[in-house]
Amino acid sequence: MSTSKKVKVSPKAPLKQTLQETKTTGPKRVVLAYSGGLDTSIILKWLQDEYHCEVVTFTADIGQGEEIEPARAKAIKMGIKPENIFIEDLREEFVRDFVFPMFRANALYEGEYLLGTSIARPLIAKRLIDIARKTNADAISHGATGKGNDQVRFELGAYALMPNVHVIAPWREWDLLSREKLLAYADKHGIPVDFKKRKGGAPYSMDANLLHISYEGGILEDPNFAPEESMWRLTRSPEKAPSKAQIIELTYVKGDVVAIDAVKMSPATVLTKLNELGGLHGIGRLDKVENRYVGMKSRGCYETPGGTILLAGHRAIESITMDREVLALKDDLMPRYARMIYNGYWFSPERELLQGLIDASQATVNGLVRLKLYKGTIMCVGRESEHNSLFDTRISTFDDDGGAYNQADAGGFIKLNALRLRIAANLKSTNAQKNKTPGSASKKKAIHSKPSKSKK
Question: Which strands make up the sheet holding 246-253, listed edge to edge?
Fold first, then answer.
């Protein structure tokens, strides 16, 4: 493994000089999160030129819906050795080890966002570090900008798994901060640019995986601008969704969906099928202004059809299989758990500790849920659990329960719970009566008035 020399930095050394010293004495092999698109192709060449290092590319299929094999040919064309090109299908691992654990917590960031981008980053960080170890690389690199959350998520994950890894974030170093400069760099180095990119590309940026598609930037930076219908890729508009409702049945085992309509499926297949069903019925759109971890507000539009169905179904099965106070505790902890994921702390000890509690709570979350999908809405129309239901019809019934529940007990229960309210009300009433007593006002005045000076 190549080892980088430590650069001694004088307190008065110019930043530019320090950065140049780091580049010439720094990492010799870098693992780049590489999509094969324009930005990461420019980064690949920039790393070669600026750091004079060997580049290893890593391309992941996490369900973004695009062919990833072309990235191999592009990397080879850029001079990358075949043995240094890693292309992996991570869809099953993504849903099984990241999406499903998150949905066991019913996680929502700021009450709405299903964390589709956030939950993909720790997996990519994990594989970057795995490949760095495998190839004896001493650095990793990513294409996240210096204004976004992703830089934080990638790097917190990487440092948690390899504490001394060198991270190169080109957007925080280079001066290619405009589209014109990027295109000029691409032309200079023979990096292909498709027509759309050269003409400005889409009026917003997109990020997709098996859980969602996000749309940000460009015309969406005006929070008062309503996106055009043509922007949405996964979902029909509710107005154009089928006029007939569809009922689906989800089978849960320990909080995870294992079958749809009694057909057993793998985690990735479950989410793929739910995306299809939710998209058909116009489910899962969100237009949100959120608070980024780096401090600014950001407007994003999201499509999460399958995830929206997962959340509704999971809450339904928990409602009959989970103890009231356990469910309340989970609900109390959920916003904090969601912030951990949004802010990039998937590999933190606090998230792992909390995940253990959440997973333990799911031992009894087994059974069937029936959901009705109709024009952008989801309604639970049935839920059952053969062995874990806490819904006791003998006690819950409004008809004669045969003595299963003694209604007379409710009186004492209510009085005990009302005791503090009654004490406070009595005190308030007593004080009010004192203030109304004749002469009480003059007595108060006498008590608080200053003694008059006697005349000589």
Answer: 263-264, 256-260, 246-253, 367-374, 377-384
Instruction: Give the integer Cα–Cα distance in Å for 178 and 185.
Output: 11
pLDDT band at 245 (very low <50, low <70, confident <90, very high): very high
Evaluate whether 330 touches 358 at the Cβ level (below 8 Å). Answer: yes
For 372-415, how does the pLDDT look when each residue is reduced to its tens digit (9 = 90+)? 999 999 999 999 999 999 999 999 999 998 999 999 999 999 99
For the segment 62-108, what is each residue's pLDDT rounded down to a tens digit? 999 988 999 999 999 999 999 999 999 999 999 999 999 999 999 99
Pick the CATH number of 206-322+365-393 from 1.10.10.10, 2.102.10.10, 2.40.10.10, 3.90.1260.10: 3.90.1260.10
What is the pLDDT averaged over residues 129-157?
97
Structure tokens at 98: 């990241």
Q: Are strands 297-303 and 285-291 parallel, antiparallel or unpaired?
A: antiparallel
Name the phi and psi angles at 212, rounded to 5.
Answer: -165, 175
| Residue range 204-236, pLDDT digits in tens | 899 999 999 999 999 999 999 999 999 999 999
DSSP, collapsed to helix, strand or coil, labels residue 270 as helix
Cα end-to-end span (Å), the chain: 103
What is the amino acid identity at position 212?
Answer: H
For residue 218, with 0-12 CB atoms within 10 Å meaning exposed, 13-18 middle and 19 or more buried, which class applies? middle
User: What sign does the dihedral 380-388-311-274 (CA atoms) show?
Assistant: negative
What is residue 196's predicted lDDT score, i.e. its pLDDT? 66
Helix, strand or coil, per DSSP, at residue 226 = coil
Band of pLDDT at residue 18, cut at 50, 70 and 90: low
Question: How confident is the model over 265-313, as pLDDT tens digits?
Answer: 999 999 999 999 999 999 999 999 999 999 999 999 999 999 999 999 9
CA 95 to CA 247: how far, in whole Å? 24
Give catalytic residue positions.
39, 121, 150, 205
Which one, of 64, 47, 65, lies nearest residue 56 by Cα?
47
Amino acid making up residue 20: Q
Cα–Cα distance for residue pair 214/206, rounded to 1 Å? 6
Considering the four listed CATH numbers 3.40.1280.10, 3.40.50.620, 3.40.630.30, 3.40.50.300, the one that applies to the domain covering 15-201 is 3.40.50.620
Round to whole Å and give the CA distance between 185 and 172.
Answer: 17
Only one residue has tokens 């698109």, namely 37
d(CA 286, CA 284): 7
Fill in the DSSP letter of residue 31: E
